[in-house]
Structure formats: structure tokens, C-alpha cells
Design brief:
The complex is a heterodimer. By secondary structure, chain A is mostly helical. The radius of gyration of chain A is 16 Å and the shape is elongated. Chain A contains two helices and no strands. Chain A has one domain. The termini of chain B are far apart. Chain B folds into two domains: 51 residues; 65 residues. The mean pLDDT of chain B is 89. The chains are: A mainly alpha, B mainly alpha. Chains A and B meet through helix 1 and helix 2 of A and helix 1, helix 2 and helix 3 of B.
Chain lengths: 64, 128
């Protein structure tokens, strides 16, 4: 739960954007779509894990 | 020192969000989610101290502390609701934000019914 997580997500986002551009230029649109989806799923798993730890902490702090 | 950390993370998230919005529209929401989570996580530390202080006070002079506990629960829920609503508004989905807001309000009201009933009884006793 620290700052490098945020930088990791920015890195993945920009990497996927570049890959998307390269693949579309190379004419392989379907693989470009695949990489975008794969990148999104990876980032989604990371984000969901972090959000669940946050909600768990809030639950314990306020003893909900 | 804590304030500088929170502001710093906020600005970093802001810059990353702007960059991501430029290149890949779907990813900027993740940056906003994670940035908000990090800032909330840091501020939870200080909230915990406040809550311990409040609990200690309510236990000392045996104030009826089930209302204090309920009050803490309600603040916890409103913190989460506010987190979700502001992110949905940031993403431009006003209707989803309103739905979450509505659900949150309903939960808050349903949890505060015992308080309302006790106050009403006290009020009735006061009347002649």
C-alpha cells in the first residue's frame, strides 16, 4: 500500500498503450485488443487486492 | 509531515491520471482508485488514534457508549460511501454515484433507528 504501486499501474498503462499502437500499426488489430485486455485484467487484480485490504482496514478501525 | 505525504501522493496521482487519460482512457480510473486508497490508508492511522481516544473517554465516565459505538460505525460507513461516490463522480458516472449515495443513506438510516426510538421515548417522557 505504498507509492510504487501507483507507478506500477502507470507503467502498465503506458506500456499497453505503446503495445497497442505498435500492434495496430503492424496490422494485427486482434492481438492489440488482446494485449489491452490482458493489461487491464492484470491491473484489475492488483487494484482489487489493494481495495480489499483498504476496506478490511476500515472495517477493523471502525469495528463495523 | 503527514500532510506533505498526503499532498504529494495526491499530486502524483493527479499527474499519472492526466498522462493515462491521454494515452489509455480505461486506465486512469485505476490510478484514481489506488491513489485514493493510499491516501485513505495513511489517514486511517490518525483516525484510529482519535477513535481510541473517544473510546477511552466513553469507557471512563461510563457514558452510554453503545451510542458512541453506533456513531463510529456510521462514520465508518460514510467514509466508505464518500470514497466510492467521489470516484464515480470523477469518472463521470453521476448516476452510479447517486445510486451508491442512495444505498448508503438507506443503510445509515436503518442503522440509526434504535437511536431515534430511544430519543422519541425520552421526548415523550418529557412532555407533561
Amino acid at each position: 500500500m505504498n507509492i510504487d504501486l501507483l507507478l506500477k499501474i502507470a507503467g502498465i498503462g503506458i506500456l499497453v498503450a505503446v503495445l497497442h499502437q505498435i500492434l495496430t500499426r503492424a496490422g494485427r488489430d486482434d492481438q492489440a485488443m488482446m494485449t489491452t485486455l490482458a493489461g487491464m485484467i492484470i491491473v484489475l487484480t492488483v487494484v482489487v487486492k489493494e481495495i480489499s485490504t483498504l476496506f478490511e482496514t476500515v472495517r477493523t478501525v471502525f469495528n463495523l | 509531515m503527514d500532510v506533505i505525504k498526503i499532498i504529494g501522493i495526491g499530486f502524483i496521482t493527479l499527474i499519472i491520471t492526466i498522462v493515462l487519460k491521454e494515452y489509455k482512457k480505461e486506465y486512469y480510473i485505476y490510478a484514481v482508485l489506488i491513489g485514493g486508497a493510499i491516501i485513505l490508508f495513511y489517514s486511517l492511522g490518525t483516525i484510529k488514534e482519535i477513535i481510541d481516544f473517544v473510546n477511552e473517554i466513553s469507557n471512563n465516565n461510563n457514558y452510554n457508549n453503545e451510542f458512541i459505538k453506533l456513531l463510529l460505525k456510521l462514520t465508518g460507513i460514510s467514509v466508505l460511501i464518500e470514497y466510492a461516490v467521489s470516484i464515480c463522480k470523477d469518472a463521470g458516472e453521476i448516476s452510479i454515484a447517486n445510486k451508491i449515495d442512495l444505498g448508503g443513506k438507506i443503510i445509515l438510516i436503518s442503522m440509526s433507528i434504535p437511536v431515534i426510538s430511544v430519543t422519541l421515548e425520552a421526548l415523550v417522557k418529557l412532555l407533561p
